[in-house]
Amino acid sequence: MITPERGASGLIEKIQTFYKVLQEPFVAREDEIKALTLALVAREHVILIGEPGTAKSAIARRTAELINANFFKYLLTKYTEPSELFGPLDLNALKEGKYVRITKGKMPEAEIVFLDEVFNANSAILNALLSIMQERIWYDGYTEIRVPLWTLIGATNRVPEEPELEAVYDRFLVRQYAKPVPENKWSELLDAGWRIESGQIPPAEPVLDMDTLAQIHKLIFRVDLSPIKSKLLRLYAIFEERGIHLTDRRKTKALKVIAAHALLEGRIIAQEKDLVALKYVAPRDIEDFEKVNIILSEELKMPERFIKELNDIRANVRETYHLVDTMRSYDPRLVDLFRSLKIAKSRIVNILKETDNQSVKALAEKTLEEIDKLLEKISYKLGM
After folding, report:
1. What are phi and psi of 191, to 5 degrees?
2. Contact yes or no for 26/192 (Cβ under 8 A)
3. What is the dihedral of CA 309, 311, 314, 320, to 10 degrees?
4. pTM of the complete model
5. Per-residue pLDDT tens for 266-297?
6. Whole-angstrom Cα distance, residue 317 to residue 329?
7. Whether 134 contacts 249, CB under 8 Å
8. What is the DSSP string of 242-254?
9. Which of 30, 21, 75 lies closest to 52 in space, CA to CA?
């Protein structure tokens, strides 16, 4: 592997440090944080889709703090007025016949922006956002103003279906479905939440600045993408065959996210495993996130992904084992658990067929043993 030269290595270390420190207070938010980090390196926008209370706002604020960036945050509704985002008119200037807004502390001066429930905005705000996201230009009346926006972080609890929202949604190159923390992580969640509520988490100290982030961004255009081009084209064809359509814009801009992933891994030459970044670009609907994950898992066959999947299955099996101990015989939930374990077992058998990696095989076989033991326990309770 060709390693980056010293200057590039220093910049890569800085974004790796940012990625690590951003994760520290959060539980089971690795994908959200990686999606956001890739969006920052690529200088693209990111949308976090999920119910309230899944740390979207907290991740956005900590991001801005770690970069020491000008930050603007707002919750949008259909009644939100443009002045709430862009600032009120300067009445003194208006008396002199000048159309000027007071933008201090508002979105036009922000480098990192977080807009909650972004698709609730009215058409006037959506039109303004479209030009800001695409061109970094805000059209205020007859005035064209270039804004310092680096990344807009949007949050929503739904994927928009309205045609008038499609253009704005497509400008969010990076997308992540923020699910609630899984049951096997609840204990960690409670511990982390208590540390935050009791003030044990120190304020975020900057580990980057905007100038350094701009230098890191320039590095993505020095990443050699030629080793992955043929595989990428194959993945695009598979996505299309399975009903996952990417616009021409997204197909092209995905290269920046793939290159950003290579940098985050410490490389200036892309490898097939960097194509996993497509999980943040290809999905449109909620169902697509799982479809894309399955396709990438099948096509890339990366040991790391299999190991993570198997460890998640093992953790769920252990939680289920304790749950079964508390259930009485013929509890109707036992049948559902039995079926779920059979599905998990089938998935593990497929992993064994797909991989030649000995570590993955050993972990898969150990997980199968644990599932079989639990299936036997459930069968006994059900009198099977």
Report:
1. -65, -45
2. yes
3. -80
4. 0.82
5. 999 999 999 999 999 999 999 999 899 889 98
6. 19
7. no
8. TT----HHHHHHH
9. 75
